[in-house]
Design brief:
Number of helices: 9
Shape: globular
Protein name: ABC transporter substrate-binding protein
Distance between the termini: 48 Å
Low-confidence stretches: 1-15, 17-31, 246-252
CATH superfamily of the largest domain: Periplasmic binding protein-like II
Helix content: 25-40%
Organism: Aerophototrophica crusticola
Structural class: alpha/beta
CATH architecture of the largest domain: 3-Layer(aba) Sandwich
Order of helices and strands: HHEHEHEEEEHEHEHEEHH
CATH class of the largest domain: Alpha Beta
Number of domains: 2
Largest sheet: 5 strands, mixed
Mean pLDDT: 80
Strand order of the largest sheet: 2-1-3-10-4
Keywords: Signal
Strand content: 15-25%
Oligomer: single chain
Number of strands: 10
Length: 252
């Protein structure tokens, strides 16, 4: 009994010391559930997100046990980021004033070109309230609404050709490299790009619940992919441009 009482007093003393409280918090954070590297699943089981998650886990080495890759649809990812309690990181986020303080911005990943695509002939821009196909949970929803268009959400990016072919929606707002890869070339009538928007950077971002040690490890792993050209080779496979030279890797 005396030994147990002594241990309790010792623990209470240690927790009263600020540095000890920080150490205890850090220990709990590091030993918590792994941080999820979320990506958009492709129907064939591959895709840019999955390949990038694999490469990062490989570069993390012994620290990879503190992370795990998982396919999570865009709408659910957006909800998890909004809630903030799930330790989560994912790829190709667009920064905005509404999101700026709600996420850790780890690294700039690419510099993409957003385009508006139309099925068939006609005006180059949708009319007010006209439906435009966008990937659900993405920043394209906000872009479409800002232009005065009605959002037609798409749950899987590879369904664009199928949804356009129904004729119910004639417009699609998306990143140029995604359009190039999409199965839309054989559509009748054919599709055409009617407007190109100003290029915007996309980022590797994490929820606020991801501990700082994990952010630093993930940043170091991503920088190693940049340094040896592995990331450039991966982007070249899907015609995505590299981050701008002045982009760098800013702090939290």
């Amino acid at each position: 009994m005396m030994l147990r009482a002594g241990l309790v007093l010792l623990l209470a003393f240690l927790m009263s010391v600020p540095s000890a409280r920080v150490s205890a918090w850090t220990l709990r954070a590091v030993s918590a559930d792994p941080v999820v590297l979320a990506y958009e699943a492709a129907p064939e089981g591959q895709g840019l997100g999955l390949e990038l998650a694999r490469m990062l886990l490989d570069r993390l080495g012994a620290d990879a046990a503190q992370f795990r890759a998982e396919p999570i649809p865009g709408t659910r990812r957006a909800r998890l980021f909004e809630e903030g309690s799930t330790p989560l990181c994912s790829f190709f986020h667009v920064r905005s004033p509404a999101r700026e303080a709600a996420r850790h911005w780890v690294a700039e990943m690419s510099y993409g070109q957003t385009v508006l695509v139309r099925l068939g002939d006609g005006p180059d821009l949708p009319g007010p309230g006209e439906p435009v196909l966008v990937f659900a949970g993405s920043h394209y929803e906000a872009m479409a609404r800002q232009e005065g268009w009605m959002v037609e959400p798409m749950r899987v990016r590879d369904h664009a050709g199928r949804m356009l072919s129904t004729g119910r929606v004639q417009w699609w707002l998306e990143e140029l490299s995604v359009v190039r890869q999409a199965e839309v070339k054989g559509l009748v009538p054919p599709v055409r790009v009617t407007k190109a928007f100003a290029p915007i950077p996309a980022w590797l971002a994490c929820s606020l619940s991801v501990p700082e040690p994990h952010l630093l490890r993930l940043r170091a792993a991503f920088n190693s992919l940049l340094a040896d050209g592995s990331y450039a080779a991966l982007l070249a496979q899907v015609n995505l441009p590299m981050p701008r030279p002045e982009g760098g890797v800013p702090g939290q």
